[in-house]
Amino acid sequence: MAEDYNEESIRSLEWKEHIRLRPGMYIGKLGDGSSADDGIYVLIKEIVDNSVDEFVMGNGRSIEVSIEEKTVSVRDYGRGIPLGKVIDCVSKINTGAKYDSNVFKKAVGLNGVGSKAVNALSSYFRVQSVREGRTKIVEFSRGDVINDFSEQETTERNGTRITFNADEEIFGNIHYIQEYVESMLWNYAFLNTGLIINFNGEKFQAKNGLLDLLNRNLNETPVLYPIIHIREDDFECAITHANQSGEEYYSFVNGQNTTMGGTHLAAFREAFVKTIREFYKKDFEAGDIRSGVVAAISIKVQEPVFESQTKTKLGSLYLEPDGRTIRNYVNEIVKKHLDDYLHMNSETADGLLQQIMMSEKERKELTNIKKLAKESIKKVSLHNKKLRDCRVHFNSSHERRLDTTLFITEGDSASGSITKSRDVNTQGVFSLKGKPLNCYGLSKKIVYENEEFNLLQSALNIEEGLDNLRYNNIVIATDADVDGMHIRLLLLTFFLQFYPDIVKSHHLYILQTPLFRVRNKKKTFYCYTPDEKQKAMIEVGINPEITRFKGLGEISPDEFRHFIGAQIRLEPVIMKKHSDISETLSFYMGKNTPERQSFIMDNLRIEEDLVNETPAVDFTEELGQKTPMEQETV
What we know:
Layout: H1 15-21, H2 24-27, H3 39-56, E1 62-68, E2 71-76, H4 86-91, H5 114-120, E3 122-131, E4 134-141, E5 144-148, E6 152-153, E7 159-166, H6 168-171, H7 178-191, E8 196-199, E9 202-204, H8 210-218, E10 228-232, E11 235-241, E12 248-253, E13 256-257, H9 263-280, H10 286-290, E14 293-299, H11 326-344, H12 346-381, E15 387-388, E16 405-410, H13 411-421, E17 427-432, H14 445-449, H15 451-460, E18 473-477, H16 482-498, H17 500-504, E19 508-512, E20 516-519, E21 524-527, H18 530-540, E22 545-548, H19 557-563, E23 569-572, H20 581-589, H21 593-603, H22 607-613, H23 620-623, E24 631-632
Parallel strand pairs: 1-8, 12-14, 16-17, 16-18, 18-19, 22-24
Antiparallel strand pairs: 1-2, 2-7, 3-4, 3-7, 4-5, 4-6, 8-9, 10-11, 11-14, 12-13, 15-17, 19-23, 20-21, 20-22
């Protein structure tokens, strides 16, 4: 029987209730911090955005950020929130000074939502404002005021300090990955010359804008010609080509990292191709020109329009208030400066031409192979048992696109458990038939000649780059044994060799599954480490049943859904700043067996040493009797 629809059916939510009920509208995906686009990093960004906007308007040169365990604190030295409006500015939607373009021009946070979302989604939130020798402090919990302190005199400098703990009822057992936070803060430094950010005692400052960004992110990656750096008015870009396939972009609007690009990035890509064609007077393929390009683009727009509250894609077509299109504005600047640069730097022009010709040659060599590979895919696509696809994809506009995940498993046993327990809307499964080929040192044609690689590339839709990537999270799900580790290495080699952008863009993860199950008739604990197992044994008490999981196929579908749902544990694959991909791959996956053998022998630790290093834990006192022998599932 249908429910009655009447006046009682209509409900008005308070501001904090709506944010907590629909957090995705305000911060994108949730997550515990394993992924760079998890909401807990958006919370940090929303607060830092406000401090950076103060700097942009000429108020305060430094920002202090600290993270101690799960507590985040951000202190700026700007003007400080007017003391009489402290509560309103962090707890009333659509309240703030950024609606007045004379006070905040070309700011990122324009909707009066950011700090309120952080407040509502924090179990503890503290705001302190200092202005002209007086300070005001207010404390909140999940959006509710818990302490409203009276104004006090102070000797502190003007500015604002925000401290918060993200609510673990919403985000789970959170942990901040330092590399993700550092990358975010470095971007602020690169885009705001003169700004100093101190993060947990480390200083972040850049003098050459996007030129420094490319130099830092390219690390030791060899480039084909010196970085071209262009600056004019509200636009800046840095461009070069590296010895890699695909395109790599760092895209920003008003200091915001627009990871999904937008109108400004589309304009740049078009302008770059057009200028190159006109300079060389040849109608090169756009893909040949942009293959291997690494570029950073930044634009400042008054009152920008983003496609979501998380501001990952610019939707604005025009520059306000002069009315010019962003496309024409970017085209004019890139054409003028890039054309001049190439005319004045013949070595760079020659290097760029050589890169284009090399890309063109490679494309033509692969044309026939690609054609045969695509025909092969068409033949097996109707009966492709390797891929169990999901309904929503990352390259769509669906509200759950950020949750899309592809699990790459070894064999039918593991894939069967995941397939039966997955979310069919957002989680797909790709099953390997065994150990994939070691592709280190091979050319990209192996991707098309090897059926397994070809089908995986097709499933991900990454042949032409990441623009149409079908899954936000690519998860390697192999057993926690020697064979599983080997398969993991072979897959990592595949991605690093041919699609490093997958790793650089934080799309690649390792699935963590429990090693042990500890239970009695009342309680069940899944443990990922021996320490967790020991704690669970104490919690369960007398006569625990302990099962050791060797492979994913041993975990039943009913149990598996706990490990790939809201409580999923993912280990991100992160490329460290000083890591050299080619050198690392050469050592571990190349033909240098004697060197690897020597390394293993020199670093081998025998079982006796490990036992002596690990203090024994006696559970007899806590449990009241001797611990039973573990029941191992083999």
